[in-house]
Amino acid sequence: MALIVQKFGGTSVGSIERIEQVADKVRKFREAGDDLVVVLSAMSGETNRLIDLAKQINDQPDPRELDVIVSTGEQVTIALLAMALIKRGVPAVSYTGNQVRILTDNSHNKARILQIDDHKIRSDLKAGRVVVVAGFQGVDENGNITTLGRGGSDTTGVALAAALKADECQIYTDVDGVYTTDPRVVPQAQRLEKITFEEMLEMASLGSKVLQIRSVEFAGKYNVPLRVLHSFKEGPGTLITIDEEESMEQPIISGIAFNRDEAKLTIRGVPDTPGVAFKILGPISAANIEVDMIVQNVAHDNTTDFTFTVHRNEYEKALSVLENTAKEIGAREVIGDTKIAKVSIVGVGMRSHAGVASRMFESLAKESINIQMISTSEIKVSVVIEEKYLELAVRALHTAFELDAPRKGE
Amino acid sequence: MALIVQKFGGTSVGSIERIEQVADKVRKFREAGDDLVVVLSAMSGETNRLIDLAKQINDQPDPRELDVIVSTGEQVTIALLAMALIKRGVPAVSYTGNQVRILTDNSHNKARILQIDDHKIRSDLKAGRVVVVAGFQGVDENGNITTLGRGGSDTTGVALAAALKADECQIYTDVDGVYTTDPRVVPQAQRLEKITFEEMLEMASLGSKVLQIRSVEFAGKYNVPLRVLHSFKEGPGTLITIDEEESMEQPIISGIAFNRDEAKLTIRGVPDTPGVAFKILGPISAANIEVDMIVQNVAHDNTTDFTFTVHRNEYEKALSVLENTAKEIGAREVIGDTKIAKVSIVGVGMRSHAGVASRMFESLAKESINIQMISTSEIKVSVVIEEKYLELAVRALHTAFELDAPRKGE
């Protein structure tokens, strides 16, 4: 008999019919003998409706009061699911974040979980009840309602699994697992049976938005086995876990991630003096613009070029900040490009394999795709290319790294 | 500087515009120097929407879980009002029933308030904040969310006023006070400046649905001065208070209430033996049918007739129960009538005035209105008449008891 935490997102509980389907699924697990804690999001669209109500009062609504409103979304779904389970003869009880009690810090709208009281949940599980918990919300030490920020229900699921030392945290979504790359781009993409936390982090942050990145970090930190599954289709999904078996048979790379949401900015002819990177990125950061890749090459003629990428939505803003900076520090010019794409190969296997990057560059060269920027980490290599080559690049790499064929061990 | 509890109902907070108007009103009071606790209902229609969601899962939803859902309605409005106040530069904070903490028993969907912790509210008031509290909800000693039943926000307001020893509890509604009778029936109806708790109870239970009856009882018990006011019009409203000055100038009756929602049932030729009333009403009560008036006259020929009224919606059900009973106890026949109306005169003044009832009967006789049933209490006389005479009867009585003219002392 296992203890399983199951998390269903907004689409999975988006209507009464869907909630009834989730109840059927939960009942099946319960009848198989598992102890179950179910974490729910608000019905899809509901959180936006509530935020919109608040914004009709004030574009910048008071953060404490916003959490009071937004937290009602999950409060409705947990009670609906508990009712649906009770109707099926499955004893169940719902808890808000406050009732559990999921203690957070007091950063309204983006709170972090500090501690979970497992007392009530354990006693309900012992009494044979399914416990349905509101995701995305908690309470600070003064009893103020807090929320974890958008998508935070995944984090609630993982945190509960960690606190309860659950055997598995199952995240139900609208995909049946994590794939070697986006199947819409590469039809031969394969569902991965397993992936490590580190790989998943690189895949998620690079645009394979299956799981919320914070929840993966959290799961890795507390070593909670995470499984991504489809809400309404049968199948084993993908297990995200620690890297247990670094065997010969492990593929060199696990997947190919990509992202077309970025834009690139370059400031050229920057005097090559200490502190210049800060002078450039300081004002960007002060303007609340997030930077992804940063590349600076060695200087020549005492000047250097400095390039970074930002979200495409923030390109104009970043450009105007950077133009000011260029004047101040005496740089030659600022240029930018929004028609770029980032492609990354990810895999813990590359740690022990030399030549992974060169194999990547080689297969792009074969397709005559020019590489504009390169950055690397221990388990990934990312390149920026012209956007129109994105699909071609992903397909070429998918084949070059032997991801097309059904993989060994699967 | 007074401490005032203000309660706004669902219509008063039914849209963002209305909530902004309430915020303007609250700000004015605050700027005048009063300490304010504001109690809110859910937006009109929202509670029904939430109940409907629950009923889509189960016609008889689990009571605990229903409270979890339904309580979100007020949780949204309190935060919206707090935001609107903060936007206006008025420091404000919202609290759910659980956050206050309003402790209730565990009768879900119809809980009763046991105790209110005034600690947080007092410290907020001291800090100059307007405190916005969710009406209609509380929490039991195990932390389960409870609701007080439909319309319970009035009760929350009165209970808070009692706990805080507030100077006044103001109930904002869609009428500008309590009238001598329904102005739609008698255009000369007058707004009462004052009315006693007892009179208000009789008026409310008889169909002048301005205030929730439980809140009036509660206010009377704890002697909380209640004031009924219009949410969006200026005016002093009607003060409901204890009967301080039983002066000569006090009118004999304060108002005329009426009700067309009832139906009458008579069981005839009942053997006149002890216990027969219970044999008749026992099965009615067991069928969860509420009975209003009950009349039994003295027996003749060892049989008696027994008449009572029920809500018109329950007439058919009551009729079938009563026909079974008639067979069992050997009664002659069962007859009924749904085309009836009840008219009542209410006033503490009648205690010290003889002949009030006969004056009532006289003025009805003058209009040739036949009286079918009569029942009396210390401060009211009710009669049942044929429904079509209702307006005529109310107007005749309004004139007979001198309620048409502006009254002395106003």
What does this structure look like?
2 copies of one chain form a homodimer. Chain A is 34% helix and 26% strand. Chain A is globular and about 75 Å long. Chain A is built from 13 helices and 20 strands. The two termini of chain A are 26 Å apart. With 410 residues, chain A is of the alpha/beta class. In chain A, a hairpin with a 7-residue loop joins strand 11 and strand 12. The model of chain A has no long low-confidence stretch (mean pLDDT 90). Chains A and B meet through helix 1, helix 2, helix 3 and helix 4 of A and helix 1, helix 2, helix 3 and helix 4 of B.
Shape of chain A: globular
The rounded Rg of chain A comes to 24 Å
**Main sheet of chain A?**
8 strands, mixed
Task: Give the number of DSSP strands of chain A.
Answer: 20
Distance between the termini of chain A: 26 Å
Tell me the number of helical segments of chain A per DSSP (H or I, 4 or more residues long). 13
Q: Into which percent range does the helicity of residues of chain A fall?
A: 25-40%
**Structural class from helices and strands of chain A?**
alpha/beta
Index terms:
410 residues, homodimer, eight-stranded mixed beta sheet, alpha/beta, 20 strands
Describe the protein's topology.
The structure is a homodimer of 410-residue chains.
Chain A: E1 3-8, H1 16-31, E2 35-40, H2 46-57, H3 63-70, H4 72-87, E3 92-95, H5 97-100, E4 102-104, E5 113-116, H6 119-126, E6 130-134, E7 137-139, E8 145-147, H7 153-163, E9 168-173, E10 194-196, H8 197-205, H9 213-221, E11 226-230, E12 238-241, E13 255-259, E14 262-271, H10 276-286, E15 291-296, E16 303-311, H11 315-329, E17 333-337, E18 340-346, H12 356-366, E19 371-377, E20 380-386, H13 390-400
